[in-house]
């Protein structure tokens, strides 16, 4: 990526992933999603990259935690925060130079959480028609919410069809006998 | 801070000091939208039923079933007693036409008994609330299928004195939690999750964002509820005011459950009391958690249950819930002032 000096020279506003970064990290996110699908889990892959290094990685943990907010993004954000704590890094200055790569558009809740942490860029694959917070249901990413962190930029559509197909496959293979509300996905 | 504490204590059981009002959807709370239409006097009353029948055939007023076709004349000394809606201005063959002949083609409607048309405004949509109905009816007679609960709620009279006493008590717990959090350096926001069927408190939480930027009072409570069900992913043990109660089997036995099982599932059927309006993240966390109802004290600048968004009534989302604001509003506002003093 860039050298330390160059990073300091660019402001948070101009922070933007290059095409080859998008290619590389989205491939990684798609591998995670595929892996989840093969294990019968919600096929969403998500990683947070700071300084060309993965600082957070998440998969949906709603069912095992019985906490409906444990979306992949929230899990990844927790990892980022833990890492800052352990390495004695300033959360804000790390977040301001961290990009989120995720196979599906973050939901309204996750989009607001990303704003609260001042994540500047989100790269995602397909739209989230049911809960999307980057324009599909609401546009939290750019809304005028002065007390909810910063707006963030979205780069959408990378391998979108593939992401949609994985979600479709997942919905199809869901056990039809399972109690309905127990299977939740974002 | 002292006088505030005294006032707070003085009104501890005074449920008359606040009123809970519903936070309705945009459709329910917006102004009455009007469309222009041509009306005409019925100069011969005997022709009324024929005119209505023939006009319904020619200009059926699709999507405006709430509009009555005929109205009695407003002015007492009017030469004609009735007026009839001919068509929407947008449906007229010539929008600038002011003659009855241009509105009614040669066959279809006999013009006997009709005077010259004039423009009126009629409500574009059926009224959803009594205030909308009253405004709409001033323009043109409108029918209204009243949701009595909404009417009563808008008057601030939905909850009985015993219900208000319980709500008062739950919000007092949320306020106490907010104060405890404040003492630990957090924002003064507290929340309580209640199972209204058993009248038990499931979880009490306060803002913990000093230690984790996403641990708002609501997200703390959501995880505490998860812990009460054997899940959860955080420990709030270092905050004595954040706590949960695992539902015991006997408190759940007499609760009818649609699934036929007595296992609680996330926040289904639970009520949340929170001292101030939740942010977007927290509001959507409540959608994901299938909360039953939300009661909050005061609005907040970026609030998502009424102020900036109405996520509880958002189109396209798969779970909607009722929201009421104003519970112990003065005391909750007092908490906001505590925060502003520090800032
Ligand atoms: Zn999400
Ligand atoms: Zn919040």
For this entry, give a set of tags.
heterodimer; A: 186 residues; alpha/beta; Cytidine Deaminase, domain 2; 5-stranded mixed beta sheet; 7 helices; 5 strands; 40% helix; globular; disordered N terminus; B: 343 residues; alpha+beta; 11 helices; binds zinc ion; metal-binding (chain A); hydrolase (chain A); Cytidine_deaminase-like (chain A)
What does this entry look like structurally?
The complex is a heterodimer of chains A (186) and B (343). With 186 residues, chain A is α/β, with parallel strands linked by helices. Chain A has one domain: 3-Layer(aba) Sandwich (Cytidine Deaminase, domain 2). Chain A contains 7 helices and 5 strands; from the N terminus they run H-H-E-E-H-H-H-E-H-E-E-H. Chain A has a 5-stranded mixed sheet. By secondary structure, chain B is α+β, with helices and mostly antiparallel strands. Chain B has 2 domains: 91 residues, no CATH class; 163 residues, Cytidine Deaminase, domain 2 (3-Layer(aba) Sandwich), CATH 3.40.140.10. Helix content of chain B is 31%, strand content 17%. In chain B, strands 1-11-10-9-6-7-8 form a 7-stranded mixed sheet. The longest helix of chain B is centred in the middle third of the chain and has 23 residues. Chain B is elongated. At the A-B interface, helix 4 and helix 6 of A face helix 8 and helix 10 of B. The site of one zinc ion has 7 residues of chain A, from helix 6.
Estimate the strand proportion of chain A: 15-25%
Structural class of chain B: alpha+beta
Total DSSP E strands of chain B: 11
Order of helices and strands of chain A: HHEEHHHEHEEH
Q: How is the main sheet of chain A built?
A: 5 strands, mixed
Percent helix range of chain B: 25-40%
